[in-house]
Write a structure and sequence with these properties.
Radius of gyration: 15 Å
CATH topology: DHBP synthase
Shape: globular
Number of helices: 6
CATH superfamily: DHBP synthase
Order of helices and strands: HEEHEHHEEHEHEEE
Number of strands: 9
Number of domains: 1
Low-confidence stretches: none
CATH architecture: Alpha-Beta Complex
Amino acid sequence: MNRDHPEPRKVARVVEVLQKGGVIAYPSDTVYGLGCDLMNKAAIERLYQIKGMQRDKSLAFICPDLSDIARYAIVENPQYRVLKRCLPGPFTFILTATREVPKMVLTKQKTVGIKVPNHPVPIAIVRELGRPLISTTAAPPGEDPIVDPWELSERFPGLDYVIDAGDCGTVPTTVVDLSEGDVKVVREGAGPLELLG
């Protein structure tokens, strides 16, 4: 798929796979991700299986823009200012979830991780799908992220679609917890910390 100008026909094909409960590998502005439709319970189960991930490990999801985040997370003014500075970009923000979020992807603290990557491919997919894409790093548990799209289907048998948009990076997003009002860096990654203020 063209990295900078994703072809509508190919995007529509990916969305069709997602609507049928498929699990895909896709590029982002940091590393390749594995994902499925946020509203498809069976697909989320399969995603956990394909990655070999424990059920208590949380999944983030991708929204197309800042205004969409407010449907799924409670965003007060101070948090909004941080999001506005950092997104789209290589950050995952942990926020308090709204009732729109399926219980299956909620943490015990009723929070969710939300990303708006600075990459045209996942953004085109979520816009066409009309709802967020579940997201987890394409890295086998305890290993580094897989960079080469050709290797993805080998390492994660069961994937329904691998989007090849060339090599991605090797450093995952910076994870920032904003759920309690202050800025807490949970995992340092690709995002520049000075943007957090």
